[in-house]
Design a protein that fits this description.
Layout lengths: L4 E4 L2 E5 L16 E6 L2 E6 L2 E4 L28 E6 L4 E7 L2 E6 L2 E6 L7 E7 L4 E7 L2 E6 L2 E6 L7 E7 L9 E5 L2 E5 L5 E5 L7 E6 L7 E5 L2 E5 L5 E5 L7 E6 L7 E5 L2 E5 L5 E5 L7 E6 L4 E8 L2 E7 L7 E6 L7 E7 L3 E11 L2 E8 L3 E6 L7 E7 L6 E5 L2 E5 L5 E5 L7 E6 L4 E7 L2 E6 L3 E6 L7 E7 L26
């Protein structure tokens, strides 16, 4: 399933020389819109808004923002993308055997989770768009991302490679969810509705049918010739896909919340319905789906998956409270009961996957700020975290000085990236500087804003070894930084404790 609309940025490097003089990638990055007129050029890069819940911003705790950059008018061609530091928010997760597949910005990360307490990255596949969801079928991973559907050969997980791609055109059709059944992938994306894609030849996925749902689609599950679509404020849509080329809606149920996630087992569909919690719906008669029960999940339910007699719900509360993985006993669908939970302020309200072996069962939950958490749910009433794999977090701001880019990476700290070869940016240094939201650079110093504390002054004269040299507490926290010609002497700065 997918999570939906907070702020994500990846570092993109542009060459503003005429295209004829540039050798490198010519693909516009996610979120870039180009407008080139006669004799002048206007460029706008909007920070990606990838929903953690819905486009309207169900969760006010996350700031949804846009940054507009307008370079000088050019007489030549449009600037071209020549390189990108691709990591960002962690989203979308699927597990097959002892490997987990999940997104970090525009990267599909493959991790060995055979040791649940110490998951290890084995390879990464860089894609063009932001990863939203992952489905596994056989030797292939099907990735819903913002430009379409990617097919990744994972027959050898450590050597995963993209083998196929289908672009889903349109302004607001970015991929959000994907499910696979037989020779077809079912793709949903914002205003794209439901797309049915023939994947019998993985290297050549082909769209064969579509259905325009009335809302913004967020997730899809398929069973018995029907696709069950979580359609936001328009609830659950039941679409007959027995004839893939002619999908047709046969039933619907307007749920009381915002349908964000969906899972199906037998005659029941389970909908993660935002602030309305988990809804259990009887679809034994697909033309007349009927709700039979619900569970209040305290926060806002964003994702759901099923394993055995349990539903695992990712639930987003009011930061930093009530973000949780909730375990619900659905052995009697008409009487679901929450039996256990694990709370973590940084859990994503989106995706969760469950896999079990050797009598142990683990849930893999995305951490919104970056990473994969492994939860032992072998005893459903007492789930607990056993492992964590970190990935770079949200990128809120970037500054460039000389050959280096400085990225304010939320709880990922300050990241220093060498951009001397624009086509191949790579990280050279890192410093934990709280929850970094803004950065500016002057001379040998970077000035970094911590949203919950204040301003850090960091010596970056040796980019591989940045050092904090000063701190100023700002009473209201901070969100941006601009260097002063005469910064305060570090001897006058003190650093308070910060969570």
């Amino acid at each position: 399933m997918q999570s939906r609309d907070t702020v994500v940025s990846v570092l993109s490097v542009f060459d503003e020389r005429p295209a004829s003089s540039v050798t490198g990638l010519a693909l516009p990055p996610p979120g870039v819109q180009e407008s080139c007129g006669e004799g002048s050029r206007n460029y706008r890069m909007a920070r990606s808004t990838k929903s953690v819940t819905r486009v309207a911003g169900l969760f006010a705790v996350f700031v949804i923002a846009s940054l507009f950059l307008v370079p000088p008018a050019l007489a030549g061609d449009c600037p071209e993308l020549v390189g990108r530091w691709p990591y960002g928010v962690a989203d979308g997760v699927a597990v097959s055997g002892t490997f987990a597949y999940f997104g970090s910005g525009t990267v599909l990360i493959v991790a060995d989770v055979s040791n649940a307490a110490n998951p290890q990255v084995v390879t990464q596949v860089v894609l063009s768009g932001m990863v939203s969801d992952v489905a596994i079928s056989g030797s292939y991973a099907y990735v819903a991302e913002w430009t379409g559907l990617r097919v990744i050969d994972i027959s050898t997980p450590a050597s995963a490679v993209e083998v196929g791609f289908l672009e889903i055109p349109g302004g607001f059709n970015w991929g959000v969810g994907v499910a696979v059944s037989g020779s077809y992938a079912y793709f949903v994306g914002a205003e794209a509705g439901l797309r049915v894609i023939d994947i019998s030849t993985p290297a050549n996925p082909t769209e064969v049918g579509s259905y325009p749902t009335p809302g913004q689609t967020y997730d899809v599950a398929v069973s018995g010739g029907y696709a069950f679509v979580a359609d936001g404020t328009f609830g659950l849509r039941v679409i007959d896909v027995s004839t893939p080329a002619s999908p047709n809606e046969v039933g619907f149920l307007n749920t009381p919340g915002d349908a964000m996630g969906v899972a199906v087992s037998g005659s029941y569909v389970y909908v993660a319905d935002g602030e309305a919690g988990l809804r259990v719906i009887d679809v034994s008669t697909p033309t007349f789906p009927a709700e039979v029960a619900s569970v209040d999940t305290t926060g806002s339910a964003g994702g759901v998956t099923l394993s055995g007699s349990y539903a695992y719900v990712s639930d987003h509360g009011n930061f930093p409270d009530n973000n949780a993985l909730r375990v619900v006993d659905v052995s009697t669908p008409a009487s679901p009961t929450e039996v256990g939970s694990v709370e973590d302020p940084w859990l994503s309200p989106g995706d969760v996957a469950v896999s079990g072996w050797n009598a142990y069962t683990f849930a893999y939950v995305m951490e919104g700020s970056g990473g994969l958490r492994t939860i032992d749910v072998s005893t459903p009433t007492s789930p607990f975290e056993v492992g964590f794999l970190d990935t770079p977090a949200w990128a809120w701001d970037v500054a460039v000085s000389g050959s280096y880019a400085y990225i304010a990476n939320d709880h990922g700290g300050l990241r220093l990236v060498d951009v001397s070869t624009p086509a191949s940016p790579f990280e050279v240094g890192y410093l934990d500087a709280g929850a970094t939201f803004g950065v500016a650079v002057s001379g040998n110093y970077a000035y970094v804003v911590d949203c919950c504390a204040g301003l850090y002054v960091i010596d970056v004269s040796t980019p591989a070894s940045p050092i904090e040299v000063g701190f100023v507490d700002t009473p209201g926290g901070g969100a941006g930084a601009w260097p002063s010609p005469a910064p305060m002497p570090t001897s006058q700065m003190t650093r308070p404790a910060c969570w």
